[in-house]
Prior knowledge:
Blueprint: H1 6-22, H2 24-37, H3 41-47, H4 62-76, E1 79-85, H5 91-107, H6 110-124, E2 126-134, E3 143-148, E4 154-155, E5 168-176, H7 177-183, E6 212-222, E7 225-232, E8 235-239, E9 277-281, E10 283-284, E11 291-292, H8 294-320, E12 323-326, H9 334-338, E13 356-359, H10 366-383, H11 400-410, H12 412-439, E14 444-450, E15 453-459, E16 467-471, E17 474-479, E18 483-489, H13 494-509, H14 518-525, H15 533-567, H16 572-575, H17 599-609
Antiparallel strand pairs: 1-18, 2-3, 2-9, 4-5, 5-6, 6-7, 7-8, 10-11, 12-13, 14-15, 16-17
Helix pairs in contact: 4-6, 4-8, 8-10, 14-15
Amino acid sequence: MPTITPERLREFTAVLQKYKTGKASLERRVVSAENWWKLRNRFEERKEGLRGGEGYHSESGWLHNVIVSKHADAMEAYPEPLILPREPGDEQQARLLSAILPCILEQNRFEKTYDAAMWQKLKTGTAAYRVIWDPDKLGGLGDISIQKVDLLNLFWEPGITDLQDSRYLFCTHLEDEDSLTERWPQLKGRLRSSPFMATRFVYDDAVSTEGKATVIEVYYKKRGVLHYCKYVGDTVLFATENNADPDPDEESAEGDNSELRTPNSELGLYAHGRYPFVLDPLFPVEGSPCGYGFVDLCANAQTAIDLMRTAFVRNTLVGATPRFFQRIDGSVNEEELLDLARPLVHVSGNLGEDSLRQIGSAPLPGVYVNVLESTIRELRETSGNTETANGTMNVGVTAASAIAALQEASGKGSRDATRASYGAFREIVELCIELIRQFYTMPRQFRITGGEGCDFVTLDNRGLLPRMQRLGQTELGLRQPVFDVKVMAQKRNAYSRLSQNELAMELYRLGLFEPGHEMQALSLLELMEFDGREKLQTRLGAALGLEQKLEELKRYRALALALTARYQPQHLAELTGGAVPMPEPEAPESGEGPAGPDPVERARSQANLAPLG
């Protein structure tokens, strides 16, 4: 009997409704933030009763500019992973993963996904990613898929701050009913209005939900195993607890599934046992895995700016457009009076002073303009989008170093948000490594570009599987290779490139790269921290080793020439290329003249000359 029955599906839907109720406040805030982003201020402000009547309404783009500037900062620091081993035996596999993971991200168009997620994070306060195994990729071979998730379609247990602590995790989406019945024939005649409907954004297009059904995907953990169920209404499309056959070549009896064909009731969906979702909040709040964004932070100041600008424009129009009081029995021709193209205005009878009187208007005092400018500065200071951050310097700041220091200081908020995004990116890379460990059972080819050309490397999961550890003949058990993920900025902004170039020029001026100073240079680099330090240390170390070898060769050559000059002088010209060096006289001993024959040779000569007997 299947574990997931229609009764169990109705329980899932009841839990989903409860999760949606607990998430209602967040959904209202997300929809409101999206309306602000689309300059729909009037819609939100009328709903809150801040404005009345019709006419001109100002909709300035100060908040829009804040989000655009922060998004540019985030994309300048686009992340790149570096995999570090924890054991010496995993160093080669770590280098291989460091080269291949950027290829996997590029194949998933992750830069486009990251771009969309950063817009989502800055507007609504949270970016959401989904890292799954897609069995339909590469013609059925399957590969990793990284997607951006709509927060309105993701539901978790209310009150938690980490998605992994949720009892259930739901993800919903709409699909055409005819497409569903074509893919899962068991749905034919069983599709009806779904009891659940997710909140939607206010789209510019007229989006109809007729002929569509809500597909619900639920993830849950049972005894440390991650399970997955996909269903519509009370019909199961796929469930890991119902799939008892782990054979990857046999298709599920319940039909095709869009998540995975191989998981079963014992292994679950993924071996890593984690929910395949990653949230990246901007400004975190307690009791929720999501945060709030710049729209929530600056909406009040933006509203005040729009209200004041609207009042200023209306006051300007009142002063620029003359208006009159006219008696009901007045004799002035109204049509001719209002037609500015007519030089004459006819009246009947006498025109008294009380027949027509101009309505006066008083211009707004300058203090109101000061209040508007103060509110604009408040918005910019609160969001960190100051003039310095945008490249505009105050009067009197002309030194290049002072300008660079101000720009560096003004970017602290953007760097802090980027570092938080790097934490979410680290989780994405870790999930990718776990999916490689589980599903890369067949070798795959990757093209690695860089340097002077490109290389083709092969990767499978053999280097990531647990292996037996031995001490001599004693088995110590299995050890699974574990790696640390270090995130770096793939792209550099203008300031970082300038500072890097200035540092290189300063090191050159100090003589750090001169021959013979390699040892001092390496000692200095050990105390410094900058990008490219390891590469510079490697080159200086290689130069130091080469110099030491050359000095050693010089000593060996001098020794060989000295020995040849003493014992085989006839070969000296061959070793020196025809130039016979003059042997240097040996230094005399203390208190004696020039050095004489060797004492051993002298004794041998005297012995040869002595008479025998």
